[in-house]
Amino acid sequence: MFSFKGVCPPQAFQSHRLLELFVYSCFLFIMAASQTLQLSSLNNVEILPIQVIDIEENKIQEPAVDEFDYSQRGQWLRAAVLGANDGLVSVASLMMGVASVKNDIKAVMVAGFAGLVAGACSMAIGEFVSVCTQRDVEISQMKREKRERSLESDENDEKLPNPGQAAVASALAFAVGAVLPLLAAAFIKQPKVRMAVVFVVASVALVAFGVVGALLGGTPVVKSSARVLVGGWMAMGTTFGLTKLIGIDHGMQI
To answer: Closest Cα partner for 122 from 178, 80, 171?
Structure first.
């Protein structure tokens, strides 16, 4: 190590010695300060707890899609579809049955109109009684749940079936379905052509009712239409065949 001893006077040597000690002390102080800062920075690091991520609960959320509750339409949709289908099939079958044993257009039209009025009244009354019974059962169930769980009495009132709505829907739908074969046969004089037109109009209307019911209810269109069409054909064919068979056995005019 270099020394100023023997080169500089004793006073200068002592001053340089003090300077060396001062510089060395500053260096040690800086090193100690840097170590202290590093330790303090490590002590201030916040150790976060390990979180267990639930994959099922943190799935990527897809954009919300508006969904419609088709069950809310069930109060009137079931009655309307059933009424229209019943009116169409019953009146068309009745007209074809009468036409199979009697060629008089007046008899066919009167029978069809009588079937329209009787069927509409029957459907309305039957649907009203049926829905009233269902409503009473649901109200009793709600009262039992209220006693057990202290629920509000009017919490689910909007979900209760409406007897008046179902009755009106059934009657109107029956009339709409029944008037179609009547209009189809009203202006045709030839008996065979009249029966063919009634059958074609009834078939087209059955398919249309099946499509409408499927679209409103959110069900497969082809399956619903085929079910309604085949059921109508079976009813009309059975009525026509049995009526014609009975007419032949009893010697009625054909």
So the answer is: 171
